[in-house]
Write a structure and sequence with these properties.
The structure is a single chain. This protein has 357 residues and is an alpha+beta fold. The chain folds into 2 domains: 2-82; 104-344, BirA Bifunctional Protein, domain 2, CATH 3.30.930. The chain has helices at 2-14, 18-29, 34-40, 47-86, 105-119, 133-136, 175-185, 224-239, 292-297, 314-322, 335-341, and strands spanning 102-103, 123-124, 130-131, 169-170, 189-198, 209-219, 246-253, 256-269, 272-275, 280-290, 306-313, 343-344. The strands form 3 sheets. Strands 2, 5, 6, 7, 8, 9, 10 and 11 form an 8-stranded mixed β-sheet that branches. Strands 1-12 form a two-stranded antiparallel ribbon. Strands 3-4 form a two-stranded antiparallel sheet. Strand 8 and strand 9 (272-275) form a beta hairpin. The N and C termini lie far apart (83 Å). 28% of the residues are buried.
């Protein structure tokens, strides 16, 4: 035992890394190690021999185990010291100049829109981007033969073989959030629903994914006059002008009746949009009084409550306000573009301090 003790304590002291240390542990006290094999021999000894050899072997095993643990800790400390020496840094050296982060125009405009409608008592409602066919179409009074339900316009999710249920879709508008808000909050209700939506389209003014904000107001005596006032106040605040002329053109949407496209009076001088003056008209959104079937689908009695709804593209109004010519650039991840059009991270838009400082 004295020879084993001297042998392994010397080898442990000389071990240069944890791999060598593990090999020594296996040789000494592993299942087939020298000390372990000697301990198995205790069963063949007489009681007198076992009484003498047993405590000595246990003491030897404990000493070897302690030596292994101490050496492992010493190796770890040495490795940490070496790492710290290699990672040393002179903190008195001058730091590199770092650019402050910038806010993407879509995020900025979403915050601007939220700030404007919050002043008018609208809260923000959110919902899933993958939604059921019922929420995206049926609850919004969109019939089965409507072109919007065709696969050339809508992204349908894959179904398992033999699954006959209606497939989920990537939502084509944020209107499903209105249904969920009605189910959850009831009436009266005032919400806006900003978020990403998906349609199978791609050109200078369309991308497969884009952003919308829709608004919904329900109460017992809401009319188109309320809708007109809300939209006028929004356009004046968003484009930061004192006066605006709106033109409502009769249109058709399955989820509103009556429905109207909304244009704003503007001019294009030198390629710059000026709102509230000139002889041109620019379409910016769709709107109307919520169809009774849609109110009923949200679990509210259309005989008691009525309301208005509207929707516009966040990307589109961002392009108009900030002179961005191509919608596709919003999704190109080009830092040069973001540095040109981006907004300072700490300039939060509000109606009192200015939306686009």
């Amino acid at each position: 035992m004295d020879d084993l003790k001297a042998k392994y304590l010397g080898l442990i002291a000389a071990a240069s890394d944890e791999a060598a240390l593990e090999d020594l542990r296996v040789q000494a006290i592993g299942k087939k190690g020298e000390i372990s094999l000697m301990m198995r021999e205790l069963g063949r000894m007489s009681p007198e021999e076992r009484q003498m050899a047993g405590p000595a072997l246990n003491a030897l095993k404990d000493e070897i185990t302690s030596a292994l643990a101490a050496k492992k800790a010493a190796l770890a400390d040495a490795a940490l010291d070496e790492r710290l020496r290699g990672e040393w840094l002179d903190v008195t050296l001058p730091a590199r100049n770092r650019r402050q982060g910038t806010i993407h125009p879509i995020s900025q405009v979403t915050e601007e829109v939220t700030a404007i409608f919050a002043e008018m008592g609208f809260s923000v409602a959110e919902g899933p981007r993958i939604d059921s066919d019922w929420y995206n179409f049926d609850a919004l009074n969109i019939p089965g033969h409507h072109p919007a339900r065709a696969e050339m316009d809508t992204f349908y999710m894959a179904r398992a073989a033999g699954d006959d249920r209606a497939p989920n879709v990537l939502r084509t508008h944020t209107s499903p959030v209105q249904i969920r808000a009605m189910e959850k909050m009831g009436a009266p209700l005032r919400v806006i629903c900003p978020g990403g939506v998906y349609r199978a389209d791609y050109d200078q003014t369309h991308t497969p994914m884009f952003h919308q904000v829709e608004g919904l107001a329900l109460d017992r005596d809401i009319s188109m006059a309320n809708l007109k006032w809300v939209l006028e106040e929004f356009v004046k605040a968003y484009f930061e002008v004192d006066h605006v002329d709106l033109r409502f053109r009769a249109s058709h949407f399955p989820f509103t009746e009556p429905s109207a496209e909304v244009d704003i009076r503007c001019s294009w001088e030198g390629g710059t949009l000026k709102v509230g003056e000139g002889d041109d008209w620019l379409e910016i959104l769709g709107s109307g009084m919520v169809h009774p079937k849609v109110i009923a689908a949200g679990g509210i009695d259309p005989e008691v409550y009525q309301g208005f709804a509207f929707g516009m593209g966040i990307d589109r109004i961002a392009m108009l306000k900030y002179g961005i010519p191509d919608l596709r650039a919003f999704f190109d991840s080009d830092l040069r573009w973001l540095r040109h059009y981006g907004f300072a991270a700490l300039d939060m838009p509000n109606l009192h301090g200015g939306l686009s400082r």
